[in-house]
Amino acid sequence: MSQTYDLVIIGGGPGGYNCAIRAGQLGLKTAIVEKRGALGGTCLNVGCIPSKALLHASESFEAARKDFAGMGIELSGVNLNLPKMMAQKDDAVDGLTKGVEFLMKKNKVDYVKGAGRLSAAGTVDITGPDGAVQQISTKNVVIATGSEVASLPNVTIDEDKIVSSTGALKLSAVPKRMIVIGGGYIGLEMGSVWRRLGAEVTVVEYLDRITPTMDSEIASVFLRALKKQGLKFELGMKVVGVDGAGKVAKVEVEPAAGGDKRVLEAEIVLVSIGRRPFTDGLGLETLGVATDKRGFILTEHFQTNVPGVYAIGDCTLGPMLAHKAEEEGAAVAQIIAGKWGHVNYGIIPGVVYTNPEVAGVGKTEDDLKAEKRAYRVGKFPFMANSRARTNHETEGLVKILEDAETHRIVGAHMIGVGVGELIGEICVAMEFGASAEDIARTCHAHPTMSEAIREAAKGVDGWTMQA
User: Fold this and answer.
1) Where in the sequence is the domain holding 375, given as residue range(s)?
2) Which of 301, 342, 392, 446 is flagged as catalytic?
3) DSSP readout, 334-373?
4) Is residue 156 part of a domain?
C-alpha cells in the first residue's frame, strides 16, 4: 500500500463503488475504503435492497391471502414464516455485496477495509478492523460517505422498541402495533411491509400531508390508497417525546398548531424523519474542507474548496437517492480522468416502492404554479388501461406536465402498480427535450401499462382516445 494512487474513494456505497468502477475502466489506479466490512453502503446493506426484498415478499403474502381467490386460485393454509422471509432478504443482500466486491477485482480497484480519514494533503489514514492504522498516498480523494439516520431530540433509538429503518428490517416478530414517526418515503415503505404482515400501523406526521416534496395531487391519491389498505394517519401532529421503558413504547403527541397532548402506544416505534450527512471523523477540518451548518460538504461540480478533494452522494446537498449518487460517482471519475462529467439534476426520478408505487421526475404542478409558469397537463387513469384492468391493478393515474411556451415535458408524476419502472420512459424523453406530442406519436405495445403514459401525453394536446 506504499504506492501513490490516482484516486482514493472513502465510502463504498452506490456513489463510491460506481465511481471506483468507472475510474478503473478509465485506467486510474484506484482504491476504495469502506469500514462496514461489506461494500454497497446503506442502500445495499440496510436500505434500498433489503427493504425491497421485504416489500416484494409481503406483497406476495398478502396477494396469496386476499387476491388469488378472485383470480380462481384457491389456496389454504397460507402462513407467515418470518425467519425464512428475513433469510431470503439477507441472502439477496449477501449475493449483491459479493457481486460488488467482484466488480472491484474485475476493474482492478483495491478494496481496503477500514475507516478512512484525511490526515494531510494527498494522504489518507485508514484504521482497520483490528485498530491498526495505515497511510496511503493519492493524487485525488472522493468522499462518498453517505448519510445516517436522523433522530428526534431526546429520543434514543435502541433498535429494540424504538427502531430506525435499520432495526425495522430486522424485527424478529410481527408487532401487534407499530407507530411510524414521519410520513416520508422510507417510513411509508416500512410501515406498509409490517401492515401487510399483520401489524396495526399508525403514521404520525408533523405536516398536514404526507410526502411533502411529492406532487400534491398524487400525494392525495397516495394517502387515500394507504388508508384504504388499513394504515392510520395522525397528520399535523408533533411528537413531544417517546418512552420505551415499559412493556410497550409510549409516544406523546400534540397538534402541531397547538392543543391537548395524547399518548399513543405500540410495541414498536419506527423513527423515520429523514437522514443526515455522515461527515464526522473524516478529518475534514484537517484540510479545511468546507461544510454547511448541517454538515453537508459544499461542492461546485463535485469539487470541494480544497484542490484534489471531491465529494458526492448523500454527504453533499441534493436529493438523498442512490441513483443520484451513482450518477455523480461516474461523473467525478470522468472529470478526474480528464474527460467530461455531468449530472442533469432536473431529471432525477424519485420512487416510493409501496403498493401502489409512486414515481415522479422534474417539476411538480405545485412548483409550476409557484413559479407562475404557463403549463399544460395531461392525465390518464389506470382504470381505463386494458392491461391494468385485466391484472386487477387499476388504482392510480399518470400525469404529464409540459411547458406551454417551449412544449417540452418538464415533469411527470404517477401512482400505480409498477410505475417505478415506467418513469424511465419520461426521463429519457426529458433528456432528449421531448414534447408530450413526441410520446403521443410513439407506438407503444398493446396491452401494456405503458400505454397510460401515451394516453396522458395525448391528453396534454386534448386528444386522449381511451378514456
Assistant:
1) 347-460
2) 446
3) HHHTTS-----GGG--EEE-SSSEEEEEE--HHHHHHTT-
4) no
